[in-house]
Amino acid sequence: MVINSSASPSILLILVHYWTEARPVYKGILLMILASFAFSCMDTIAKMMSAHYDPFQVVWARYCSQSFWSLVVLAPFLARLLKTRYLRLQILRSGLLFGATLAFFSALPYLKLAELFAIFEVAPLLITCLSFLILKEKVSWPRWVGVTIGLLGALIIIRPGTEVFTPYALLPIVAASCFAGYSITTRFLGSEESPWTNFLYTALIGTVIASVLVIPKWQPIAMEDLPILSSFGIIGGIGHLMLIFALRYTQASILAPFSYFGLLYSSFWGFYVFDELPDIFTYLGAFVIVASGIFVWYRENRKTVVAVMQEG
User: Fold this and answer.
1) Would 17 be classed as within a structural domain?
2) Closest by alpha carbon to 183, among 115, 92, 262, 118?
3) Separation in Å, CA 148 to CA 128, 168, 249
4) Averaged pLDDT for residues 65-92
5) Measuring CA to CA, which of 117, 179, 275, 286 is 20 to 30 A from 124?
6) Has residue 20 been placed in a domain?
7) Cα 12 from chain centroid (whole Å)
8) Mean pLDDT of the region 29-44
9) How do residues 134-176 score in pLDDT, each as one tens digit?
């Protein structure tokens, strides 16, 4: 069989053409779906490594690998990209993402991936609360109903007061809260700073924090784990970069429901890699959380979605 060597370049050109011609809203949605996939891949690798290393060391490897390759690729532009008018906000934003990563990774050895992601999906609802408290945005009654129902969904999965409850189930709530704060600050910086500046500060500040905290937890790294630990942070970096660009193409309110793809990905990886099958309470709680999120999204964004789709 003869393979046409020009086929791959032709396909690439077609994809580039469709990307340049696509409406911004569709670009944002696609990037959000791809970002969720990248995060699920990173978290799957982190769960594998957490079986052998302390979560602090796994977080350190995640940030160091992202920083190293980012500095290599962006070296010619560092002087320009590191200039910021919002250094304190960059530090706060990066610290919040670090907190989300540490809390999430710390729960990996103790919870199933699908459970973790299902509980973490209260993050969009918590963003609603922070938008009201910090940004002073007007929050309608459907939003508060959705937030309340979503948190009840998380309680269904966690089941406090029962014998299956573990304190580690609270860590995804902590991670979701930190990520909500990160999203609020990213929303502001998204229109004020270059996405590459946001990306660099997130990686570098996270690396500094992790390098200090990992010292008492350090253990020698096996040679066979070096390739994974030195590169898997790139996947997370790519995911965050796609998320930053997605928020520049499309409003956060439009993108919110597509974050639930992460729950599908995590269920697949949990079964395929770890042979995990969530129990009925995880499915029920996840359904309640996703349904509440979609309810809020639909009630608040019906007109906005139609307008954005028409405008492109």
Assistant:
1) no
2) 92
3) 11, 22, 30
4) 88
5) 275
6) no
7) 28
8) 89
9) 766 666 677 777 777 877 877 787 776 665 567 888 898 899 8
Structural domains of the chain, count: 1
Q: CA–CA separation, 21 vs 311, rounded Å?
A: 14
Task: State pTM to two decimals.
Answer: 0.80
Whole-angstrom CA distances from 206 to 83, 90, 146, 159, 232 are: 18, 11, 32, 33, 15
| 189 in a structural domain | yes
Asked if 55 contacts 168 with a C-beta cutoff of 8 angstroms, the reply is no
Residues 6+ apart with CB under 8 A from 50: 58, 105, 108, 109
Task: Name the token pair of 132.
Answer: 């009201």
Q: By the 8 A CB rule, do 54 and 272 touch? A: no
Q: Is residue 34 part of a domain?
A: yes
- Exposed, middle or buried by CB within 10 Å (0-12, 13-18, 19+), for 38? buried
Report the distance separating Cα 150 and Cα 285, nearest Å.
8
Locate tokens 């009840």: which residue?
A: 152
Q: Which domain holds residue 139?
A: 27-311
**Coil, strand or helix: which one is 301?**
helix
